[in-house]
Backbone:
């Protein structure tokens, strides 16, 4: 990506958080024809959004009028091959590359898959929970969650139950431990090999600064990795709500992440029912007043309920899963 959500690798128009003015629903409960139970999403260049549910991958049109089943079914399982017969088990991460390949983090199958040209193939993981670096199927994950792509052909994965970040070289299939210590959850900055995480949930990559951002719901931090070191971006390790300087700010189960074209890091602060923004060492609230709700309109009036995962589309809009509203919503100019 050029400086935006790690789920999207298309060129975006320059939209900063200061340019955002309103929240709108792309698809939600008012659409009685389609009912979504979304987990993760990846926004495409044309404004459409790929959405994962417990066993399916769907595509929502830019206007929200059409929902197309791309892969999977309501029957959970673990099958590769033709997209229509493929099976998943709660895929909690999606990443879309510039060629249209969709990478799927199949969380409870402990695997990473890809969907391209109507066929689902295995990228990495043997389907058993645990930890092992290696090539392709010889690698092992433990409930992997969010993902991020860089322009060097690497896919980063939040290997949540192993408390580490993994790196997959998509050209060779090599899976390595990128940061953190296996099964040594905690909080520690420093060198990538000695740093500690606690159930990392989502990732976002800033191509301009070569920084990988990581959300930690249970530590209450947003962390970063750059030049071989892990550092704290925002949060003070306590649950609650407080805007202000990055290290004084407080989150309540921060989950989804996205990076805007201007370098702003967006956070789905799920239990605070807010979308937060981190920029120039400060944390501000973009949407939400702390009350769960389902209101479109100006950013000062709009309400959300348990925002989960996030992405940035080709027009620079911030798109997110509004979990308890069963909705895909977007923040626009």
Residues:
């Amino acid at each position: 990506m050029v400086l935006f959500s790690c789920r999207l690798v298309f060129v975006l128009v320059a939209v900063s958080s200061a340019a955002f003015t309103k929240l709108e629903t792309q698809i939600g409960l008012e659409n009685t024809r389609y009912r979504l139970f979304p987990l993760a999403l990846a926004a495409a260049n044309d404004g459409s959004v790929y959405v994962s549910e417990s066993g399916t991958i769907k595509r929502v049109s830019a206007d929200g009028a059409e929902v197309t089943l791309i892969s999977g079914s309501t029957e959970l399982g673990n099958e590769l091959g033709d997209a229509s017969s493929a099976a998943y088990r709660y895929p909690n991460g999606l990443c879309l590359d510039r060629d249209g390949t969709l990478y799927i983090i199949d969380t409870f199958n402990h695997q990473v898959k890809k969907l391209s040209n109507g066929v689902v193939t295995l990228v990495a993981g043997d389907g058993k929970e645990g930890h092992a670096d290696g090539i392709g199927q010889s690698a092992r994950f433990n409930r992997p969650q969010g993902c991020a792509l860089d322009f060097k052909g690497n896919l980063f994965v939040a290997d949540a139950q192993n408390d580490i970040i993994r790196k997959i070289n998509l050209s060779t299939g090599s899976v390595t431990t990128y940061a953190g210590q296996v099964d040594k959850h905690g909080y520690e900055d420093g060198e990538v090999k000695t740093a500690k995480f606690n159930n990392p949930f989502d990732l976002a990559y800033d191509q301009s600064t070569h920084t990988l951002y990581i959300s930690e719901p249970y530590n209450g931090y947003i962390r970063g990795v750059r030049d071989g070191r892990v550092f704290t971006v925002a949060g003070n390790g306590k649950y609650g709500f407080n805007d202000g300087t990055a290290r004084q700010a407080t989150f309540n189960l921060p989950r989804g992440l996205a990076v805007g074209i201007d370098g702003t890091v967006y956070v789905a602060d799920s239990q605070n029912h807010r979308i937060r923004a981190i920029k120039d060492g400060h944390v501000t609230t973009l949407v939400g007043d702390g009350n769960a709700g389902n209101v479109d309109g100006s950013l000062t009036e709009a309400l959300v309920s348990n925002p989960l995962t996030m992405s940035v589309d080709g027009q620079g809009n911030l798109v997110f899963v509004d979990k308890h509203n069963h909705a895909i919503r977007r923040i626009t100019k």
Remarks:
- Residues 1-6, 8-15 have pLDDT under 50 and may be disordered.
- The first strand starts at residue 22 and ends at 27.
